[in-house]
Amino acid sequence: MFDTMTMTKVIGGLCSTFLVFLLGAWLAEEIYHAGGHGDYHDQAYVIEVEGAEGEAEEAVEEEPFSVVFASASAEEGEGLWRGCRSCHALESGQHGTGPALYGVVNRPVQFYDDFGYSGALAEAADVWTPENLNAFLENPRGYAPGTAMSYNGMRDVEDRANLIAYLATIGG
């Protein structure tokens, strides 16, 4: 059934297919990484800007959370809630992957007896004040190392304030 010539054709076909894929990958790399490879990062054309030498970038200071929270919008926070509802519910006692967030603002951290909280949250805070929620939502694993919450965090302070303002309207 298989003789030497058939095996040679099969191996040749596999090798040529592999070669086509390698050449295709190389071509795609050249097309989509036009800046070159390695440490070569020089620009083709540099626009000189007068007075740009020696200017230090000004550090952008974030407004304090209390100031941002004072003008937070619960309506905008309702839109941000969509990202939370895959794991949390707003009905009292109805848990998802995470605990129910009904009345979460200014309630004890481990409020529900029927939910298995991670011990990391109890070590981080006693009560979910808006400031504690802000710190937790910014970086859950940084605020409560060892938390079971796998969310990476919400970077924008205004988004966090709006979400907390929305949660404060639910069951508070």
Structural class by SSE content:
mainly alpha
Describe the biggest sheet? Answer: none
What is the overall number of helices? 7
Which regions contain 5 or more consecutive residues with pLDDT less than 50?
A: none
N-to-C SSE string, H for helix and E for strand: HHHHHHH
Mean of residue pLDDT values: 83
Structurally, the number of domains stands at 2
Shape: flat
CATH fold annotation of the largest domain: Cytochrome Bc1 Complex, Chain D, domain 2
Oligomer: single chain
Distance between the termini: 79 Å
> CATH superfamily of the largest domain, called what?
Cytochrome c-like domain
- What Rg is obtained from the alpha carbons, in whole angstroms? 28 Å
CATH class of the largest domain: Mainly Alpha
Q: What fraction, in percent, of the residue positions are helical?
A: 40-55%
CATH architecture of the largest domain: Orthogonal Bundle
Approximately what portion of the residues adopt beta-strand conformation?
A: under 5%
Record field, number of beta strands: 0
Domain Cytochrome c: 72-171
InterPro entries: Cyt_c-like_dom, Cyt_c-like_dom_sf, Cyt_c_1A/1B
Protein name: Cytochrome c
Organism: Yoonia maricola
